[in-house]
Amino acid sequence: MSRAFVTGATGLLGGNLVRELAVRGWQVRALVRDEGRAARLLAGLPALTLVGGDMEDPEAFAPALAGCDVVFHTAAYFRESYRGGSHWARLHAVNVEGTKRLIAAALAAGVRRFLQVSSIGTLIMRRPDGGPVDAGMRERADATNNDYFRSKILADAVVEDALARHPELWAAFVLPGFMNGPGDAGPTAAGQMIVDFVARRLPGVVDAHLSWVDARDVAQACVAAAERAPRGARYVVAGRRLHLADGYAALARITGIAAPTRRLPTRLVGAIAALNEAWARLSGRPVLIGLATYRNLRDTGPHNLYDSSRAERELDVVFRPLEETLRDAVAWLRGQGMLAAPSPAATPAVATVDG
Description:
Blueprint: E1 3-7, H1 12-23, E2 27-32, H2 35-41, E3 48-52, H3 58-61, E4 70-73, H4 88-108, E5 113-117, H5 147-165, E6 170-176, E7 178-180, H6 189-198, E8 205-206, E9 209-214, H7 215-228, E10 234-237, E11 240-243, H8 244-255, E12 263-264, H9 266-283, H10 291-300, H11 309-314, H12 322-335
Parallel strand pairs: 1-2, 1-4, 2-3, 4-5, 5-6, 6-10, 7-9, 8-12
Antiparallel strand pairs: 9-11
């Protein structure tokens, strides 16, 4: 039986990855920050060991790496970077330095396989000819205006540097799109979008296309990559490109709640984001939409076309329909008590996007 160490094990991808590994008969050591919460979210899984710790101090949980065959690195700091202001120091500490220290600890513990979960945000937004972007079309860290994506670009560089310096190390990369699905306890931007939709807090539709992908499909790709991908291989796992309005329409069919139809000009979203950030600085409260989210929506609007064919071909990835993904996500959120009854007095919000 293979042994896996999974970081970010209660996140949307991490939790689904732990479940996928358990179904396949792996023994799993799951890195979690709150063991009580993790025990509830991951209840009933066989051969699972919870390891308390976080990515700001990998050395503290390093002993738990011993005896593992593969590290699946899904943990990342991202949510707060969409709440306004600058979070670069924390993004760098967790996503970049944390990855560097994790690899060093894994190598010291004798682990020789490392699966890095990256992001399509580490790639260029568009090709000059309008074709789909593949995993080799990298963005430069100094070219992106998104600090989270910059941190992921630099984290990938850390893994590639380790590959160059340690010939005994195997590593591969999975680059997910806009992940949705059950198990979104955070919630991520995807889960929050559903929460806001059900509460009727979405005043309109931003003109943006997203690469929607089920976290369970990404989890399956991660396991397949760890089992058979070539050393250094990179796989886009981005699902299907659909307009934000298509996602709202699917949610309307699933929930019976009317979808917003009014189109929100991108410039209006930018103005809302600027006002939100100013209010956040005065009030100390998190923003509903920040400038980082606005810039992401602005830059990805008509684009977000990615080529997942290598993952489909080499990892046997099959993308399930978006409606199935959203139906299961709604059911899970409802089961967790995270979907409030719709309130006409609720404060409007704009759906946010990260990748």
